[in-house]
Amino acid sequence: MRNLKKELILICASSLLFSLPNPALTQEEIPQEETSERFPLFQFIEDSDERRQEREGLKKKQYQEREELNKQKAEDKKTLKEKQEFEMKALVEKQKQERAQEVEERKQQKVEEAEKKALKLDVKGRLKEQEEYIEKVQNSKRSIKVISGEEDPILIVDAIIKDGKTAFLKMNGVELNYKIKIKNQTPKIIDRFSFTWQRKLPFDESLNFDKETSVSKPLIPYEDRIVEYNELNYEREGEIYLVKVNKIVFQDGTQWVNPEKF
Question: Using CA atoms, how far apart are residues 163 and 165, in angstroms rounded to an integer?
Fold first, then answer.
């Protein structure tokens, strides 16, 4: 027991001895532990808050940039759509106008073709009727020959000579009715024109009688008209009559002279 107490006393003394400061060391040479002004937990919390604020600021900036980019894209898309719609409307309107113009041109072309065809058929039909009529009267007491062509400004469609009121009296001087049906084949107004009837006596073709008649009543484009007059003639069986248009004066002052001769 006494030995145990001695050991305890020695241990305590040794501990006290080692815990005392070394007198050989100065105050400056004693190592001091580095201490922080704040506790590490508080510093960690502050650092975390700053990083969080930075992240939130970055997220907000990125969000704003995305919003601005999306807004710009939407505006560009809207502008492009409006431009495409405008161009499409303009194209549709242009195509519509072109189709309408084509339809109108086709209609006008059909009308012109129909008019030309009708005029051609009308001229051919009238010429055919004229030829048939000439053949019909060739063996009668008087024969009529019309000098007129499709290219002439005035076409003589028909020519007729009828007995007048004195024919039944069997007189030498007989009143005859000269009648021609004409057509203005031009789009111009004819101011005046003249035509000639020629009468050839039978068995003596060298003896001819010409009667020129002038008409001063204007003839409008494509007009049909009948011109007639009466005259006393000494009629003989088998007489031949010829008729033609001599000269035409248009309203604009231009003239046409028939190159055909009897």
Answer: 7
Please report the pLDDT score of residue 161 as a whole number.
83
d(CA 226, CA 219) in angstroms, rounded, equals 11
How do residues 60-84 score in pLDDT, each as one tens digit? 888 899 899 999 998 988 899 898 8
Domain ranges across the chain:
138-257
Distances (CA, A) of 251 to 189, 195, 217, 246: 6, 18, 11, 17
Q: Could you tell me the CA-to-CA distances from 183 to 84, 102, 128, 132, 260 in Å, in that order?
A: 59, 34, 16, 19, 18
Output the pLDDT for position 118: 80
CB-based contacts of 159, cutoff 8 Å, min separation 6: 130, 144, 146, 179, 180, 181, 241, 243
CATH architecture, domain defined by 138-257? Sandwich (2.60)
For 134-195, the DSSP string reads HHHHTTSSEEEEEE--TTSSEEEEEEEEEE-TTGGGT-SEEEEEEEEEEEE-SSS-EEEEEE
pTM to 2 decimals? 0.44
Nearest to 243 by CA among 137, 171, 157, 117: 157
pLDDT at 138 (0 to 100): 47
